[in-house]
Structures are given as C-alpha cells and as structure tokens.
Amino acid sequence: MLSAITTVVALLFGFPVAFYMTLQREPYRTVLIFLVTVPFWTNLLVRNYAWVLLLRDTGLINGALLGAGIIDQPLPLLYTPFAVAVGLAYSFMPFMVLPIYASLEKIDFRLVEAAYDLYADRRTMLRRVVLPLAKPGIVAGSILVFVPCLGSYVTPALLGGSKTLMIGNLVAGRFSEARDWPFGAALAFFLLAMVLAAMTFQALRARRQEEGE
Amino acid sequence: MTGNAVETGNAVEAQKVSKIFGSGPGAVHALDEVEVAIRQNEFFTLLGPSGCGKTTLLRLIAGFEQPTAGEILLDGKPIAGTPPFRRPVNTVFQSYALFPHMTVSQNVGFGLEMLGQDRKTIAATVERTLDLVKLGGMADRKPAQLSGGQQQRVALARALANRPKVLLLDEPLSALDLKLRKEMQIELKRLQSETGITFVFVTHDQEEALTMSDRVAVMSNGKILQIGSPAEIYEKPTRRFVADFIGETNFVEAEVLAGEGELHRFRLPGGRELSAADAFDHGVGETVTLAVRPERAEIVEAEAAQMTGRVENIVYFGTDTTYHVTLEGGGRFVVRLQNRDGACRLHETGDTVGVRLPAEAVQVLRD
Amino acid sequence: MTEAADSPPAQKPARRRGGFQTRRFPGLPTISAVFFAYLYLPIAILVALSFNANRTATIWTDFTTDWYARALANDDMLQAAANSLIIAASAMTLATVLATLAALGMSRRRFKGRTGVTALLSLPLIVPEIVTAVATLLFFVALGLQLGLLTVIIAHTVFCIPFAYLPIRARLEDMDPALREAAADLYANEWKSFVRVILPLLFPGILSGAMLAFIISLDDFVITFFTAGAGSTTLPVYIFSLIRMGVTPEVNAISAMMLLISISFVTLSFVLASGKHRI
C-alpha cells in the first residue's frame, strides 16, 4: 500500500540526511534540527495545499515543463497515488529523520575511526558499523512514518481526490457524507487495531533488544 | 518509639538502626542494626566502599529516608517522624544541589529565609558565611558561573549559614581534582574547629578519612566494623576488612600455641614462633589471622627472623622501596623500607632473606 | 542503503591517500540540500504566490498585498480565526495545567501501573487523528452534547495534553532529585519547596509545553472538522472548505499567514528553551 512506499521513500531520504546532520558541528547542527522540526509544527493542511499549487495541471511543475517545451500536454500529477505519496512523505519526513538522528548521534565517532583503522572502506564501515548501530532509530522512524500514514486523512483528501482513497478517508466518508456510522466505526477500529499491532511489534522488538544487551 | 529523652551528650546516636530497600528476594539490606554515637563538636567520618551503607546512614540522619527498624537520636531526642525541614541538621550534597535559578547569596540565604528570619539578619549572616568560606564578592553570581571548587564552597556556606547542630557531608570532595581536594580537606577541618559544629563526613577515600577526622567508623555491607581515632584504625585494626581497606597490609595465618598472659604465642607457617598481644583471647589450637603493615616488618638475616623467603620483586617509590618476598611454605609478604642515606637497594631480586615481625607490629585480628 | 550489503569485502591495503577525511562522505551534502529544498520549496512558493497579482497563480505578474487585504476583510475568515484563538487559548491553559499536575504526580513515586499510565498518556500521539476524531464525535453524541465551541475545546484539551506533558516531564527528569532534598533540608516545607524551587525550575518546560499545545490546537484540522458544530468553525476548517472550492490567491494569503503564526511560535519556543538552558 501507499503507506509502505512512503515509508521506504522517507527512509531512503531520511537516513543520509540524519547522517549528514550528525557529521555537522554545533551550532550548525542545532540549526539543522530546528529546520527539520519547523515544518512539523506548521499547519498540515497548508503544507499539503502548497503541493496542490505545485502539482496542479496549471501548477508550477507542469508550467515549467510546458514552458521548457519538454511536454506539450500537462502531466496528470494531482489526484494520483504519486501525489499522495509525495505529500505523505513530505508531511511525515521529520518523524523519520529525528529518530534516526537520535540513534546516530549516540554513536561514538571513534567507532568510525576504529573501523577505518581496521582497514574498512567507507561502504564497509557504513554497512558494518553505522547501520547496525542506527537500527533502533531506523525501525522507530519507519514505524513513526508508517503509522500516521495509515491513518492520514488530509493528504489523500487534498492530493488524492476521489480516485486515491485511503482508510482514513473511507472512515471520514462514512461519517460525514454517507452517514453510515456503524461501518465507519468498524473501519476506524480496524485502523486502530493495525496501528496498535505495529506499535506492539515495535515494543516487543525494543524489549528483545534490551534483553539481548 | 521510646519517647523518653535521655541526655547522652551525643550529637547523634543510632540505636540498632536497620534499613531495607524493597521487599522479598530482591530486598537490599543497606543497614544492619547499626550502633553508633557521634559526640558533640567532633569531626566524625563514615568510611567504606560504595554500597556499604554510609550514605544511607547519612540520609537517615537528614530525614530523607526512614529507618526500617531502630531509632536515631538527635541531641538525645528521637527524631522519627520529624520531616527533614524541621530537623536542625543540614546537608552538603555530593552533587552540591545548588538551586540553579538563584544567585549565590539567595542560595546561602534560602534556609534562613525559610526559617522566617528578617532580611537584614539574613543579609548579614550570608555575608559573614560567604567570608568564612572565602567567597566574598561572588554573592551575585549564578551557580553555573562558578568553578567546581567555588560551587563546593557555596554548598558548604548554604549549609553552615543555618548554624545546624550537625552538618552532614556526603562525599563533598569527590568531584574535585586532587590539588583542590587537599586544599578543601584542610579548609573543612578549619571550618569545623572554627564553628564548633559536629561534622558527619561520608567518604570512600581512606586518606581523606585519616587526615581530617577525630574519629572514623569503617563500614562494610551495612555494618560498622570498627570505630576509633585515625591512628587506632590504622595501627590497631580488629577486622581483616578494616586492615585491608585502609593502607597496605600483610596477612599471615597462625596457630595459637599459648593463650595466657600479656603476650600470646603463635606458630607461623614456616614453623617458627612469635609473641604478640591478642585482644580477643583466642583459644589454644585456633587459627588466627595476623595483620602486619609493610613498614613495620624488618628484613634481617635468616637466622634472626621468624619467616624466610626469596625476594621476588622490588618496587622503588622514591621515599621508600618495597620488597615482595615469597615465603617458604607459601604466601607472599611485602616489606617497605625507607630509603635513607641513599641506600635504596639493600637486597637484590633472588636473595634469600629473613622477615622479622616485632611483637608490637603484629595485630591479631578478631576474624 | 541496501545495495551496500552486496559490496565486496574491505580491501586490505589501508587507504591513506592524502586528504582522506573521516567526517566527509561523498553525496551527503547534495542529498541533504535536495531534502531541505523538498521541505521548504513548497512553502516558499506558497508564500511567493500569495503576493502574486495574477489570478491564475502560476504566472508571476506583479507584487501585490491585495489578497491579504481581501482576506483580512473577510468576516467568515475573521470569525473562524477568532474561534481558533479562543479554542487554542482555552485548550492550552487546560491542557498545560493538567499536564503539569500529571507530570508532578508521575514523578513523585513509583507506583504499580506507572508504565501503563505513561503508555496511556502517550497513546494520543500514536492513534491516528481520524480515529480520535470519530471516537470523540461518537462520545459527544452518546452523551447528548450539542456540538459547538465547548465540545471543540474539550476535544482539543484532551489531545493537547500529551504534547504539553512531554516537555514538562522531560524537564522534571532532568532535575537533580537532590534539589528537592536540599530544599527540604533547608527548612522549606512541601509547598514552599514547590513554589520556590520546583516551579521556577520547571517553568521553561511548562512554557514550551503550553506553546506546543497552543500550536497543535491552532493547527488541528481533522478533530475539529468532526467535533465542531455550526458557528464554531476554526481557521483550518475554513481553509479546507475554501480549498475544496478551488484554488484562489486569497487562500494562499490566509495559508501564508497561518504559516507565519506557527513558525514564529515554534521559533520563539525553541529560542526560549535553548536560552533558558544556558543559564
């Protein structure tokens, strides 16, 4: 489903950024953290609306492509699963970056130096030292992105139109338009169960990890 | 709860005080029927390794914890049930616990303010106390603007300003570097004699305990093993733990041959005999442990010695040199000789030597 | 990151070329630059377009503040904004007081079910908003409460509590427990120790908690959408209805103002939090 795609996209983007942040020195680092956090506190609605402006048929992206002569028909960008995925990834990116950053930050940089000292190149060092140590953050970040994606409502409503429905919109539709409350409630409970399952999985993992140490 | 106040002349008294944290199989017996009497105006030190219960005892006196059993008397009066803010006792915390949002003088005046004294009196006392700890001129700084040593002095001043009956100090010097620590040791001793307040000092540092205290209580596993003056604790330890914890000690197992009169006779591992005083009157045939400080033993000709062995290792310390001797019949023995007249190597590795134990150097332990 | 798993094992010869820097990784700055562009470009464009005189919102023609003037003259908009502020202020106050009490209660003593309570307190952070929204709606309907300003305030207070709780709790955890003991040791009873020591030290946490609660309440759309009755429309709900009707520069202007309010609030709380820490 879309949530899964979004999570993977956010991870591929979020990890390098978080890693980049840990490599910076203060106070530059604090500024970066601040920059990542700010969008999270701004209005979700407004942020998604900004994407409407970009992705519309008459929006900036199409406008630019048309103007450059690359295409002569506007690409159908808005009201597609693609638009929803972009919007979701955009909305929940801080949830991915911050936990990964938190776990990366705890890594003693001397470990990286030790890896180089023991003949590891960059790739090997990343794979054998940084990734395993950042795993808790990666898992936490993935779940923190995946879970709100599941229940998202605003993004699909604005960017997905009527074609791309997600559970959240289904629930909302049952309550606002169809007035089919029992079915809506059942759907909501199903959603809740999925979220709790994801969280339980995470909690169990965390516990196992603690015991392993 | 006895309730009848008996004038004992002691500042603090603990009567069969026990403290158990938690319950069931995981319970921790932090204090086990501790008995101690701390006299008025003395510098009393609770010495022991971490986890021995010394801090717990201090916290019981301060009122932060309640004893599981037993009673604590302050000035002869039981204080069970009195909250910390009504006890005439003040604490210098290990972390100092200075209020970060208040200035130095606000910190120092806090207790007096809580006691409801008027501003003028408080201001005067604060100034006097800051002078006492040599912090005049720092009154308007915030704790974060002070060095570790200065914070330490503020913590002291804050406690002393209230003129408590008893001042409790919880490892207050542990965060300072060596040089500052030495300075503060002298400083604390001076403050104690100037103010005449009873100090109860907790530390795991034996040197600190020996240099500052009037009396020391050595604790281990929730029990007080020995109480005495620094010299008594060092020269006449009664327990193996005390002898081992303070300074360096050689332990020698011996068999009691004759247990009558002033000096008892013991047979040493090598078969030779030795006389020493036994305060515990062990019976004939029992095996006892003898403690001998390395600097009290002598290296002599094999014929004149009680034990013989081979010099295994020589370590040079500047003022003295230690000789590690492997004894005939097993066991190691360390002798420390002062380096006088430039003669720093009286013996060589591999030499066969004799070790003589003068009667007054041998301490017969209780356990 | 996954393709790194197939990379050949490390070459034995040490790579000690001149200029090898352990802290530098090729590509990272580029990716990060793209990332921050992705994060901020849409917002920047939104703000830029709100000053665009051209109606189509795609072609830049001229700088104008007309749309702001028009938005600020819109009575519906102003009514919604007023509602938003009332709700956010009430929810902030209630949530902060409750969160402070909860944090103090939780720190006092270890009691049975403490972890359970912690989990319960953070649950609203995890449960999808839409679920909270319909559940709250069902709850109010079951109680027979008339949907209006009051129901929105109640709903907002509830979901703001965890946001206010977390910074206060964090501040409490950071506090040296010996400070509380020191106050008691220096003759302060529980009340005095709370007023003179704990509250002043907790204040930055309470402040940032309150600010977070305010922003969260101000920005919330989903829960308000479901629990607001006629006449209690908030700004986000109003914007949503406008967007549904179509993109207009007026919406851009209102959105840009919303952004400005949130960002200035966050910046303020961030500066306050880091400033207080230094002293």
Short description:
With 213 residues, chain A is mainly alpha-helical. Helices cover 79% and strands 0% of the residues of chain A. Chain A starts with a helix and ends with a helix.
Mind explaining what this structure looks like?
The complex is a heterotrimer of chains A (213), B (367) and C (279). Chain A has helices at residues 2-23, 28-41, 44-55, 60-67, 81-105, 109-117, 122-150, 154-160, 167-176, 181-212. Chain A is mainly α and 213 residues long. The two termini of chain A are 35 Å apart. Helix content of chain B is 23%, strand content 34%. Chain B is elongated and about 80 Å long. Chain C contains 11 helices and no strands. Chain C has helices at 28-50, 66-72, 75-108, 114-126, 129-143, 149-174, 177-185, 190-219, 222-227, 235-245, 249-278. In chain C, helix 3 crosses helix 10, helix 4 (114-126) crosses helix 6 and helix 6 (149-174) crosses helix 8 (190-219). At the A-C interface, helix 1, helix 2, helix 3, helix 6 and helix 7 of A face helix 1, helix 5, helix 8, helix 10 and helix 11 of C.
Q: Write down the CATH topology of the largest domain in chain A.
A: MetI-like fold
Order of helices and strands of chain A: HHHHHHHHHH
Number of helices of chain B: 8
Total of helices of chain A: 10
Strand line-up across the major sheet of chain B? 6-7-8-3-9-10
- Poorly predicted runs of 5 or more residues of chain B: 1-7
Average pLDDT, all residues of chain A: 75
Let me know the number of strands of chain A.
Answer: 0
Q: Radius of gyration of chain B from the CA trace? A: 25 Å
The amount of helix of chain B comes to 10-25%
Q: Give the CATH H-level superfamily of the largest domain in chain A.
A: MetI-like
Overall 3D geometry of chain A? globular
Mean pLDDT of chain B: 88
N-to-C span of chain A: 35 Å
Rough shape of chain B? Answer: elongated
How are the secondary structure elements laid out?
The complex is a heterotrimer of chains A (213), B (367) and C (279).
Chain A: H1 2-23, H2 28-41, H3 44-55, H4 60-67, H5 81-105, H6 109-117, H7 122-150, H8 154-160, H9 167-176, H10 181-212
Chain B: E1 10-21, E2 28-39, E3 43-47, H1 54-62, E4 69-74, E5 77-78, E6 89-92, H2 104-114, H3 119-132, H4 148-160, E7 166-170, H5 178-195, E8 198-203, H6 206-212, E9 215-220, E10 223-228, H7 230-235, H8 240-245, E11 250-258, E12 263-267, E13 273-277, E14 287-292, E15 298-300, E16 307-316, E17 320-327, E18 332-338, E19 352-356, E20 363-364
Helix pairs in contact in B: 2-3, 2-4, 3-4
Chain C: H1 28-50, H2 66-72, H3 75-108, H4 114-126, H5 129-143, H6 149-174, H7 177-185, H8 190-219, H9 222-227, H10 235-245, H11 249-278
Helix pairs in contact in C: 1-11, 2-11, 3-6, 3-8, 3-10, 4-6, 6-8, 7-8, 8-11
